[in-house]
């Protein structure tokens, strides 16, 4: 490969690292890609790391040894996280989101990959210490958010189904009672999805009484896994207590007033 | 903000652009963020663009005028696309994927955000000329892929449901016949999701007879939209013709032999 200027190499290096969050990339990969020595690469990586940290855009982590390499760790906390939450609050409080019955239309926000990817990074930052092996959700509306959490953690996604499909192979099903409407529902997961002893982080878009999260936990337990955290985008303020108490919500829905068309949503901000 | 070296600024600039594919970011945003003049920024952007193109990592597009700005356009075509498809082929041909009935277990690949994001870029590159306003899929397994296609296009995602949920507001439902099993199914979409005259790109993970894609098209037509393309990850070689003929598959499933446990998958490569 022809010689390129250092600054051009740094641009490409940044792109490749940022594109694969949390993925450990061997140093040799970059040495070969750019045709440079390891010492040169180390200088380049130090500079990329400084720059990312300087602008609060994430950091790099280097792992020494034969199976080592370098990985990009995105983070979105403090003021950058709070600005995202404030924007989501503003959109959730738009009066025409109210659906008869006091529900909120949220799909346009949930299916906006741009917001979802930022929310995924916030959830990753808040659950980083739980070190999950799998990110799990139940179909359907929470999937895009869970995809982005899985991306930020660089861990596989697991999706529980409301029915069991023949194309998934043998599966485990549980019945659970939804906390709010007291209906019995079924949730199933293919047996291949979660190996025993796995640490699983549960993700959902909305929590009212916590019945769905409770059902997901039961399913994980059935498979011999352990739930290490429950992250939801929006949780309602009431009922309280919920069927699960160890969850973290990014926003709390205090009230929906159908008569005066007013929605009261409160972000759970990072301390700054 | 304190003065930073140019190379550090370029790293941060690259990160911010790459993080928001296809999003038009005003030049002023970067001038303010880095505290630099527009002329300096223009030089920086030219260098980022050169570097991305040099390494085939994408490009930048600058739009002049008051509402102008700069956007990062990811692409993955030619050899870089073909390497991804070859890897997916290798994984799909692992013998233990066969599920009784001749189905293939694909969820681990579909729910691997790393592969999904690369496949999303390939689909975007192949459908770039269709200029869709919306990316649409039907629940459940195709959603992560569709999220990544939406990300590569920077367009909103629309997810059709197999039932109609009260939390989505008023919706349109259609009945359709699945092409392979000849069963009648229901598919529904909230009325807010697709405005009339919208150009919609359909995405699905698997196509056998094309009944589901045909149902999605009918749903889009009901809402006054237009389907501009159909992209699927894997299509079976038979039956042929299918209920839709204007689809593009990334891989073709020629045969699943349950007896000798052999799977024959063929990538549809880019010309290089």
UniProtKB/TrEMBL annotation, chains A, B:
Instruction: Please list the residue ranges annotated as the Phosphoribosyltransferase domain.
Output: 116-267
Q: Keywords for this entry?
A: DNA-binding, Transcription, Transcription regulation
The portions of this protein that span the membrane are none
Taxonomic lineage of the native organism: Bacteria, Bacillati, Bacillota, Negativicutes, Veillonellales
Against InterPro entries, the record matches this protein to:
PRTase-like (IPR029057), PRTase_dom (IPR000836), Pur/Pyrimidine_PRTase (IPR050118), PuR_N (IPR015265), PurR_Bsub (IPR010078), WH-like_DNA-bd_sf (IPR036388), WH_DNA-bd_sf (IPR036390)
Residues in Bacterial purine repressor N-terminal domain copies? 5-74
For this entry, the protein name equals: Pur operon repressor
What family is reported?
Belongs to the purine/pyrimidine phosphoribosyltransferase family. PurR subfamily.
Give the multimer and partner information: Homodimer.
């Amino acid at each position: 490969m022809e010689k390129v200027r250092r600054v051009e190499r740094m641009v490409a290096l940044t792109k490749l690292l940022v594109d694969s969050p949390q993925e450990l990339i061997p140093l040799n990969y970059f040495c070969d890609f750019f045709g440079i020595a390891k010492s040169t690469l180390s200088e380049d990586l130090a500079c990329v790391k400084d720059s990312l940290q300087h602008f609060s855009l994430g950091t790099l982590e280097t792992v020494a040894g034969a199976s080592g390499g370098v990985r990009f760790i995105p983070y979105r906390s403090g003021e950058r996280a709070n600005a995202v939450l404030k924007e989501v609050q503003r959109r959730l409080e738009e009066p025409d989101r109210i659906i008869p019955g006091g529900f909120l239309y949220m799909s346009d926000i949930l299916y906006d990959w741009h917001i979802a990817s930022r929310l995924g990074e916030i959830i990753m930052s808040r659950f980083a210490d739980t070190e999950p092996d799998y990110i799990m959700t139940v179909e359907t509306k929470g999937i895009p958010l869970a995809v982005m959490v899985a991306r930020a953690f660089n861990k596989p996604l697991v999706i529980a189904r409301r029915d069991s499909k023949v194309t998934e192979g043998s599966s485990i099903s549980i019945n659970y009672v939804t906390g709010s409407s007291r209906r019995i529902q079924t949730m199933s997961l293919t047996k291949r999805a979660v190996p025993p002893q796995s640490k699983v982080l549960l993700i959902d878009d909305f929590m009212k009484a916590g019945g769905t999260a409770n059902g997901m936990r039961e399913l994980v337990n059935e498979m011999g896994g352990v739930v290490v955290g429950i992250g939801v985008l929006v949780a309602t303020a009431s009922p309280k207590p919920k069927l699960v108490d160890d969850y973290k919500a990014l926003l709390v829905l205090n009230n929906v007033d159908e008569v005066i068309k007013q929605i009261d949503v409160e972000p759970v901000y990072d301390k700054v």
